[in-house]
Design goal:
Blueprint: E1 2-7, H1 20-29, E2 33-38, E3 43-47, H2 53-68, E4 74-78, H3 79-87, H4 96-99, E5 103-108, H5 114-121, E6 129-133, E7 136-140, H6 152-159, E8 163-167, H7 168-177
Antiparallel strand pairs: 1-3, 1-4, 2-3, 5-7, 5-8, 6-7
Helix pairs in contact: 3-7
């Protein structure tokens, strides 16, 4: 089965530095096939015989921690799930030149409670927009993600689950690479 894994918090501001070629080798040592990485922020496409995403997540996190001596949360989606995520985009067609880095997708480690989602909505200030759908958060940050308070850390605290964010250009590229 084809999977996309997104690693949280690596190679950001000199923290948790991991060479993506090393990540590719690590995944291959774990027995995964057709391993491809995309940019330095921790995106890995791979094939695995297992259909248990929880087992795969634990296996990858354990291997990274053993090799690098720090913990890296991993979110995993199937190719089909990424396709569905793209289809459910509440912002409609995206002009990638204009808004490819202003529309973002936050992958969550699990589905947050409705109370947490409702509380989070009180912290979204126009013109920003936020939609939580299952284990994903769709964000529109017209002034740039770097200027938004809707960071991974903020979302994790408010929703009570792990999170990692990719811009829409990256989401589409991960989909394309997983074909």
């Amino acid at each position: 089965m084809k999977y996309i894994s997104v690693l949280r918090g690596i190679n950001v501001s000199g923290q948790k530095k991991i060479n993506m070629a090393d990540v590719k080798s690590l995944y291959e040592l774990l027995g995964f096939q057709d391993v491809t990485t995309y940019i330095q922020s921790g995106n890995v496409i791979f094939n695995a015989y297992s259909e248990d995403k929880v087992e795969l997540k634990k296996k990858i996190e354990k291997a990274i921690e053993e090799k690098y001596t720090f913990r890296v949360p991993v979110m995993i989606r199937t190719h089909r799930e990424i396709s569905d995520i793209i289809d459910k985009n509440p912002f409609g067609p995206i002009d990638l030149v204009k808004d490819g880095s202003r529309v973002l997708l936050t992958f969550l480690s699990s589905q947050p409670t409705q109370d947490k989602i409702s509380d989070l909505q009180h912290h979204v200030a126009a013109p920003e927009q936020l939609f939580v759908m299952g284990e994903e958060v769709y964000l529109y940050c017209p002034n740039g993600y770097g200027k938004s308070k809707l960071s991974n850390t903020f979302l994790e605290k408010r929703l009570g689950v792990g999170a990692t964010t990719r811009n829409w250009k990256s989401v589409l590229k991960l989909y394309t690479l997983s074909l």
